[in-house]
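During the second year of the project, the team shifted from modelling isolated chains to modelling whole assemblies. The rationale, set out in the original proposal, was that interfaces cannot be judged from single-chain predictions alone. As a representative example for this report, we include one of the complexes processed in the last quarter. Its constituent sequences, exactly as entered into the pipeline, are reproduced here:
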Amino acid sequence: MTTKLSRDEFEAKLRAIGEAQYHNNHPYHHRMYQGQCSIDEIRAWALNRFCYQRIIPVKDALIMARLSETEDRREWRERIVDHDGEIDDHPEGGLRRWLALTSQLGFTKEYVMSMQGALPATQFASNAYLTFVQERTVLEAVASSLTELFSPNIIAERVQGMLQNYDFITEESLTYFSYRKAQANRDSNWALDFIDRTAETREDQERCLNALKFKCSMLWAMLDALASAYHLGGTIPPGAWDPQTQTGLLDKTA
Amino acid sequence: MTTKLSRDEFEAKLRAIGEAQYHNNHPYHHRMYQGQCSIDEIRAWALNRFCYQRIIPVKDALIMARLSETEDRREWRERIVDHDGEIDDHPEGGLRRWLALTSQLGFTKEYVMSMQGALPATQFASNAYLTFVQERTVLEAVASSLTELFSPNIIAERVQGMLQNYDFITEESLTYFSYRKAQANRDSNWALDFIDRTAETREDQERCLNALKFKCSMLWAMLDALASAYHLGGTIPPGAWDPQTQTGLLDKTA
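Output from the structure prediction step:
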């Protein structure tokens, strides 16, 4: 049996995975924040990413159901509030803030929420995340959330780059991200503590590293699918949103 | 409530979905059988497709577990025998025949079976199929198998085209497909009978049509992912098989 890593060593290995495999390394992200995407490529990104946003509170509920300590569930519950909002809807939750972005890009709320225009590959990747948090240990489920260690950086690049380079993007439509930065810092610190105290062996720690790799691979696969359909000249799968027909856009001449 | 379709009308609608959305329409398939793929593109296809082959007997076991009639389960059991083989392994099952193909293409059996080189998108699509047959009604689960109505044609194109155009492909390495044609005809006729007698309303029939669309979309997504990574110049996701490094190939200078 291999010796358990110290907390610093373990955290360094987690961060190395992010360095190499997080989707801030993906060409589609680079093109997005450097102003090289067309409005339709940004639309496709926001439309598809909604599928992922939509499952976040669901996967969090699944994880919460598996946490045995009240204190842990209370902490995790904050994540669901972040995305679903409070009952009086003030402040609004992350899902609504995401829909503000897709609306500014011209989509009707109904079209986005129906997910009929999303790429099947996006839906398969998002659903793989749901399956993962149900089928793996709760330790792995929590570890898969650790992409939040890296999200403040990608968010900063994205927001700054998009505001600077696209006149169809305003600060108002990006409020989702201004909330997320603080939330991600709070959540990833807690998750890091949780896996540090819950992982008992080096094997447990390896499972955590693999969980983080899995999560990086699903975020990566979503950008691959977007690039293929809307940039590289691959197919637009039957039924997926097609910039040619402008289905789902409020003002078809936009 | 809409009127139930006659068997002929229903079958016509199912066949129309295949006409439009089955993966024989995908450019990667066209390039494959027309001899335009490199050996590495064929390798990537066979390697990734193993992920799908591997889950076939698993999804069939899940469906069989949900069939309540002994007669139906007996019929369905044949599918599992086709892929897993008999205990004395004669004739060999489909999984072994698939491994004969990947071996001829130069991969070690261990590498293929580990699935470490497969694209995450392939794994997400395959697993989506497993989730589908568990979560939907048994009627939808059976209907999703109806892509077999269309597979004899794609198999004929594939086998003829590949034998004609690639000297690294021999008839022996394609025995998987010669078995599949007869099996697919038998199975799709039975499945068509089953859904015809089980679908009670037009709404049930619509669910069957959507199940077939889902199945087409997962087969399509697998070819999209291959095209992106190995033909269109998209990324090779971190960890996936890379023709540059020839990981997993027995003879690295091949």
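The CA atoms of residues 100 and 173 of chain B lie 6 Å apart. Chain B touches chain A through 31 residues (CB under 8 Å).
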